[in-house]
């Protein structure tokens, strides 16, 4: 009996997955992970035991436990936690140390890269990675130069570059948390375009150092895939954005005024699609929105279960869902 070609293609695909190793890479805005100590150099006054939010040791430990639970489960198709996780909204090295030593992560072999920035809120980006699979060779930060209307410096999160070997393949990862839309989408667009230009300059430098540099750009961009800042990245740095087709009317990484947005995204350089030039084969992109990290009831049902709404403590995880991509290794045994 002759089988249609699509059946052979489907069998080939599933055999490939069955006999390959899936590698998960994620990004997660973890909503204000502050410790409970007062740091006079940062604007952490809202997150102290004596503040209106009453950010106590018990609440801090609860958030660490919950975040660890989420991170350990991202990428449900695989039984192993992500190899790499970019993070946004972390205060310092202490909270990252506490996070990787929390209940659900302490046995998983994570380390992290983090630099303090001059962000006015005192929050930064960071990168968690499993030392057994990703070897860090270089890390540095890049500032986005912004000015206020009065000409003063407007400080925002630095952009983090981490270079290393992922399963012995050279990879550069750029972690972002771009300026918010708090003063209005159009009014703040120039800030995110400025950040996009910094990322493009970083990638240009990487390509001068290594013509076929493989780059992963992740972050909370505070823009959707169709916005100018993201399309500028795609065009100027020849990146592919798999999340442009993940966003829909009922799916995103965060919800504002009952509308889904995909501010959290992971873009990859086009050479990941060249089978002759990489051992990593792109498989899929997805939002990790399992029911346990959502609001269960009420008018906000299905939205991210937040730690705070304003100053009211809810005891949830974050106001964002994690996003992730998956690769297959090329060390595949085909049947």
Q: Got a strand count?
A: 16
CATH topology tier name: Deoxyribonuclease I, Chain A
Gyration radius, to the nearest Å? 20 Å
The unreliable regions are 6-17
Task: Look at the structure and give the CATH class.
Answer: Alpha Beta
Distance between the termini: 20 Å
Side-by-side strand order of the widest sheet = 3-4-2-1-16-13
Major sheet summary line: 6 strands, mixed
CATH superfamily: Endonuclease/exonuclease/phosphatase
Q: How large is the count of helical segments?
A: 5
The residue-averaged pLDDT reads: 91
CATH architecture grouping: 4-Layer Sandwich
What fraction, in percent, of the residue positions are helical?
10-25%
Overall form = globular
H/E order of the elements? HEHEHEEEEEHEHEEEEEEEE
Tell me the number of structural domains: 1
Instruction: Please report which band the strand proportion falls in: under 5%, 5-15%, 15-25%, 25-35%, 35-45% or over 45%.
Output: 25-35%
What does this structure look like?
It is built from 5 helices and 16 strands. The protein is α+β, with helices and mostly antiparallel strands and 335 residues long. The chain has a single domain, classed as Endonuclease/exonuclease/phosphatase (Deoxyribonuclease I, Chain A, 4-Layer Sandwich), CATH 3.60.10.10. The strands form 4 sheets. A 6-stranded mixed sheet has the order 3-4-2-1-16-13, with helices on one face. Helix 2 packs across helix 3 and helix 4 (185-209) runs parallel beside helix 5 (228-237). The radius of gyration is 20 Å and the shape is globular. It starts with a helix and ends in a 6-residue tail after the last strand. The model is unreliable at 6-17 (pLDDT under 50).
């Amino acid at each position: 009996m002759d089988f249609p070609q699509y059946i052979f293609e489907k069998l080939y695909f599933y055999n490939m997955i069955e006999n390959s190793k899936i590698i998960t890479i994620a990004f997660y805005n973890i909503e204000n992970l502050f410790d409970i100590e007062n740091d006079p150099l940062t604007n952490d006054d809202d997150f102290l035991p004596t503040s209106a939010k009453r950010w106590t040791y018990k609440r801090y430990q609860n958030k660490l436990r919950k975040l660890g639970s989420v991170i350990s489960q991202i990428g449900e198709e695989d039984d192993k936690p992500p190899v790499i996780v970019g993070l946004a909204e972390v205060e310092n090295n202490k909270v990252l140390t506490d996070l990787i030593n929390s209940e659900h992560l302490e046995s998983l072999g994570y380390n992290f890269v983090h630099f303090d920035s001059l962000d006015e809120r005192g929050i930064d980006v960071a990168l968690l990675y499993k030392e057994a699979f990703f070897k860090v060779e270089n890390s540095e930060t890049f500032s986005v130069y912004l000015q206020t209307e009065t000409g003063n410096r407007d400080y925002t999160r630095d952009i983090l570059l981490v270079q290393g070997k992922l399963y012995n393949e050279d990879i550069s990862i750029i972690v972002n948390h771009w300026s918010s839309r708090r003063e209005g989408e159009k009014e703040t667009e120039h800030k995110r375009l400025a950040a996009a230009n910094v990322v493009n300059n970083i990638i240009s430098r990487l390509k001068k150092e290594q013509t076929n540099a493989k780059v992963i750009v992740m972050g909370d961009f505070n823009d959707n895939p169709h916005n100018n800042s993201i399309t500028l990245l795609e065009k100027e740095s020849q990146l592919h954005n798999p999340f442009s087709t993940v966003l829909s009317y009922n799916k995103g990484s965060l919800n504002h005024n009952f509308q889904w947005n995909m501010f959290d995204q992971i873009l990859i350089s086009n050479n990941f699609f060249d089978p002759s030039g990489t051992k990593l084969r792109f498989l899929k992109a997805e939002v990790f929105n399992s029911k346990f990290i959502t609001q269960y009831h009420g008018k906000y049902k299905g939205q991210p279960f937040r730690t705070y709404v304003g100053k009211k403590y809810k005891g949830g995880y974050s106001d964002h869902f994690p996003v992730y991509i998956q690769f297959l290794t090329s060390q595949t045994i085909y049947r």
